[in-house]
Amino acid sequence: MPCAPQAATGAVSLDERFFARDVVTVARELIGATLLVAGVGGVIVETEAYDREDPASHSFSGPTRRNAAMFGPPGRAYVYRSYGIHWCLNFVCGEAGHGSAVLVRALEPRAGLDTMRARRNLDEPRALCAGPGRLTQALGITIAHDGLPLAEPPFAVLPRGCEPPIVAGPRIGISKAAELPWRFGLAGSRFLSRPFPKV
DNA sequence: GGTATGATTGACT
DNA sequence: GTCAATCATACCA
């Protein structure tokens, strides 16, 4: 809690203008923002950037049925099934059709804790949203959310109040372009999916 | 503390 | 058939 979000009172959701920029910049600036899905969510503490020229990105080999949302307008959700069992949530970035997106990997739970606990069948807040698959389960995200605008219900992405301390490191769970430091996290957060490597 | 494995879908060789 | 932006569980030290 190094920096309070503007969450509570009627803040307006970040929209297409925020997301229509360089994907790495957006990934970094999303740390500390608040994500809500139907009123359930919290502060984004971990993200990863995926670019069209990035061998680890789903968009690298061009559009397919699965990644269609990545090639649509920015400011929308891209949801895909991971390892056959989990859902992963991305925010589409850059110019429309560019094929870049930010993977949301972890939240600090703030709103709808009981709903998240019920969905995850778990009490411990620290593990409720610490990982892309866990996060989507806690927020009730499925393929039905693929392509939906992030500035409209059930989604809301509220701007952070100020610039929080941010750490960067290599992305997780990929084998290609694994050296790119395109994973961003809130420094010192206890809600990360995994710790960042020490400098 | 750590490493290994199964679940299960979609895209690609 | 193989691999993948994962997680929970099982086992070993």
Automatic annotation (TrEMBL):
GO terms for MF: alkylbase DNA N-glycosylase activity; DNA binding
InterPro entries noted in UniProt: Formyl_transferase-like_C_sf, MPG, MPG_sf
EC id: 3.2.2.-
Signal peptide, first to last residue: none
Homology family: Belongs to the DNA glycosylase MPG family.
Coiled-coil region: none
Key words of the record: DNA damage, DNA repair, Glycosidase, Hydrolase
GO biological process: base-excision repair
Domain of life: Bacteria
UniProt-recorded name of the protein: Putative 3-methyladenine DNA glycosylase
Species of origin: Enterovirga aerilata
